[in-house]
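Box S2. Input/output pair 1.
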Amino acid sequence: MTRQYAYSICDMMDRIGPASVQEEFRKAGLIYIGSYFCDLYFLSVPEKVWEAVLEEISGQNKNAVLVVPVPSQRNLDAVKEKVRHLLKSWPELIAELVVNDPAFLLSSGEWGGGRDVWCGRLFSKEIRDPRYPHFRQNDRISGHISEDGTLLGTKVAGYEKEMYSDGRGSVSAAVHVPLSYISMGRHCEIGSIRRTVTEKFRLWDGCSRPCRENWNVYRNGGVTFLKFGRAVYALQKHGEDAGSADRVIYDGIADLVREDI
């Protein structure tokens, strides 16, 4: 198949304006929206921001891919309701779904509206630290997808992996560049910046999305790491050779923090 190009504004949707002038954004046919790592971010994005993002995508004749984070038990129903609302409001524009845990994959037939469903980058739990000599992330998720393209009995269109991955499965593969996801946590210290000491690190509080303006960059073992929201990324050392991937997803966060990395 012809390689597809996508641009992700996940976890930075407020920056759709600056993102849309980037070269990687302009050449992408698919724009990834939503969040990979934070259900609080996903739920706290104002409706006017969702509308502005989707209208921008529509105006540029692109399609959207909705990425659904792994929700906490407390936020499970709210995340499902938000997904249903977005799919109902933008039925033609949102072309595909990305889910990041088995439970959402199994239930996707109930609310996905027949859209293609991809296994997101959080499905793979392997060691991802690029400081290991000759490191390549294992591509185990592809080995669990059956030859008929099903995982846990559910049809999937493809799966996502990081640049440091090797391997090839029976369905389409998408690779993330130029930032590789390394790790994540439920607590977000950046999310507590404006809170008093007694109100910091509460998993049940809402989110004012301070990660839009605040992030940490540090270097260790010859690798540049980025802490953005709940996630830790590594700047890939191997360029942007996506190998045999059917789809390349460029992470817009790299453009946002370009001067720091």
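Box S3. Input/output pair 2.
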Amino acid sequence: MFKWLIRLLIFVLIILIGYNYFFGNKEEKETSEAIVTQVKSLGKSLGGVLKSEKEKFDAGKYDEALDKVGNFITGMKKNADKLDSAQLKQLKELEAKQELMQKHLDENKDSEDNLSKADKEALQKELQDIIREMDDLLKSTEEE
């Protein structure tokens, strides 16, 4: 219901601005032209942000985070003698997830196809899940 109401409101605003842009008096036309200009500017700005994010991705934005995860796993492996079997299993699962994510990034880095928004969101979610699991593992080792 709420989505429908917002869509209706946006549709009505677009029609009103369009009507004023073509058929309104001088003041209404100026106002509508200003709105259209601002919307174009917003579109260009959003395009710039998306391009910047793509460049960051290509430059290794996620690689740095995965390197930190790898360093954590390496550090935990050095202290493996202090971990119980459940913690070792959790560490191995983390390492497998990190390697899988790194493989996915490496495959898409050289590809000419850009990652879709859904793929980027999935990567971010996976990275957040890995970090959460790292935190859980760290907390469980501190409790002992």
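Caption for Box S3: The chain has a mean pLDDT of 81. The radius of gyration is 25 Å.
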